[in-house]
Amino acid sequence: MADFETQILESQKQVAAAQAKISEVTGRIEAARAKLDAGEAAIDIENATLDDVNKHTDVMNANIAELIMGLDDVTAGFSKDFDEMRSKTGMESFVGIFSNAKSESMRQERLRTASIDTKLQDLIAKSDVIVRLLQGQLDLLNTQKTRVEVNLGDTLTERETTVSALESVRAEITTMDPKIIELENKISVEQDAAVRTKLETDLAGLNARYNALVQDEQVQLAKSQTLERYIEKGKTWVDSLTNQAATQLVLINKLQTDTKQRVVLYDALTSSLKTAQQQDVAHRINEIGVKTDQEAQAAMAAIGAATNDKMADMLESHEQHMVFARQVLEQKAKADERFARRFAKIVEKHDKNAYGE
Amino acid sequence: MADVKDALTSDHMELYDTLTARRYFAKFDRITAHLLRVAGEVESEGRLTRTEARTLGRYLTALAATFDALSHKYLMTGRAEGSPRLTFDRHDSGFPVAQELMVMALDAAQVDKHLGGMASETELKDRMVRQIVRDLAVPVQLQFALSQRLYYESLAAGGLFWARNDPDAQWIEDKGDRRHYLVHWAVYDAQANLPVVYLMDVEDSGKKPLPNDDRRWPLVQSHLMAQSLGGLKLLTIAQGFDKDFPETHPKRLRRITLGPMHSHDFTLQSGPISQVLADAQAPDGDDWAMVWTVEDLISDREEEVKDGWFSTAERQVFRLDPFNGADTGATKTERMVILPERPYQVLAELNPAGLRDVQKFVVGEGGRIIPA
Fold this sequence. Notes:
The structure holds two protein chains of two kinds.
Chain A: H1 2-38, H2 47-86, H3 90-98, H4 100-113, H5 117-189, H6 193-275, H7 281-284, H8 292-355
Chain B: H1 2-9, E1 12-14, H2 18-44, H3 50-73, E2 87-89, H4 98-109, H5 111-116, H6 121-135, H7 140-157, E3 164-175, E4 178-189, E5 194-204, H8 217-227, H9 234-244, E6 248-262, H10 272-280, E7 289-307, E8 311-319, H11 325-328, E9 332-340, H12 341-350, E10 359-363, E11 369-371
Parallel strand pairs in B: 9-10
Antiparallel strand pairs in B: 1-2, 3-4, 4-5, 5-6, 6-7, 7-8, 7-9, 10-11
């Protein structure tokens, strides 16, 4: 499947590109943090960068979803195998013109050697490649998320201290106001020049302190605002990372469930196609050279017994089945719903392509 | 389509919890050890020859190795982030689903790549110690890395029971102009999710010895593997083989199905065994019963039949069980159950009709096997 290979390569490239972008944004957030520590106020994480990353991951996820859908094409190979097991080849049909029995025995012989093991292994391998791709992406997202979260935690504490510093400065400013007014009042009524000069020196000192405090307030306010902006950006980024991680989980979940079920289904189908050979009337008869009517009778009896057994089995397993079917169905429905929600558009597109609507 | 898929996988269960997963593997570790002793017991009763017992023993050892490898793979289930989970079939099997073994084969194919890129065991342990001392934290991720390393190492060591174990032939004796071989192979049945061992006594009248005949042997191998399905009766397999390979004459075909493993805590079972295990209320190590089925098909005589216009072929006529041979497609079917003392006590008291004909082996003190 050259097509699958190229698609895998394409996805790997996109994953690498997306990972580079994600790391870059986290890098920027960390660089901004370092700058904050150095006392610089500039933060160069623009919303545009975040949007760019988000757009890119969307493309990547769409591509991986296509890849998962593409597995359907891989599995189309199976249905060819199953058809071959059911029908006769050209040669067998040709022989059938002369001898129906010979033709049937040729088909049986072919059926006996048919095996889908290699194809199943291939399906598992391919789905494993995609899962690894997704898992790698998920791991990266999670490590990035923890890094940014640790960073954010530190910044939050810093902002708290800044805010409390700002508040204490403000409190001090408020307590200074009445003192200054009181001094000014005293100066305005004071007659003694010496006392007045001393009071004016006090006022000048108080004013200088007041101005310093106001300036400090400005600095703290600016710092607090910068930190707030930083936190906002960081939070947006963590949200985006969490979202992406959820998407990866949904994809992994869907893919693993599908592959698991497919393997079991294909195996069951092969098994039932093969077991069909022993239901053929002629085959049931082990003894060579027994009369035809005896054969038919024995076969009928055997088939009757087999049907009874089957009924009993079914009844027995029904009880078991009922207990778990609901749980499994619920889980499946949840996984399917999550998948559908996220990839409704892709699914729609894919379906349109596939069925030419 | 979706309904069929759901129905087919409805009995598959994932093990989420660390302790549960470890308990599951500990259980199988014990059981596989007992199986080897039971094989010895069956041999001493004369039902298996020395060669057959040794062959079966090899498959049982391989099965134990497979469980060992899987136990490494799933050692950190539920503890480390991203660690895989084991899926097993909890109805009438108790064994891991066949897909686990298929994935294992896939891992084995890439084992060099994985081991090459991993830190060595000493290095990992060194880093663990450093993380414990320096960060005062449990080095979960390193533990996970080490568990995966051990898994890949056990894959590299080999000797495992795979999803398919291709046929091998063992020469037994010469019978006139024919050679008698024991052809043996094993598969992990993907429908029942159980390991199945096949033993076939074949008489070979070809010019070259069968295992050295490049013209026939690869065909024989792929034919037998493609026919090893639990749904096929032994009669079907033997007759198909007899027909497709005129120079080989299957004289006896045995199918040994190892399992299901029943456990009150892990699996769901219908029938009397469920009551037995529930009533036993056995402690962790003793809550199990392992069933082992031997189907046996023996050739009664050989007849010459017309094959085509000018040729004749030797065909086997197999002896079938007179009562239900048409259904079982075998000469006889024997079931054995291996279980610890406590469930056996309950089994003996209840004495359910369905389990009366089953031969019982009881695991006694110190792992001794007592036929009951």
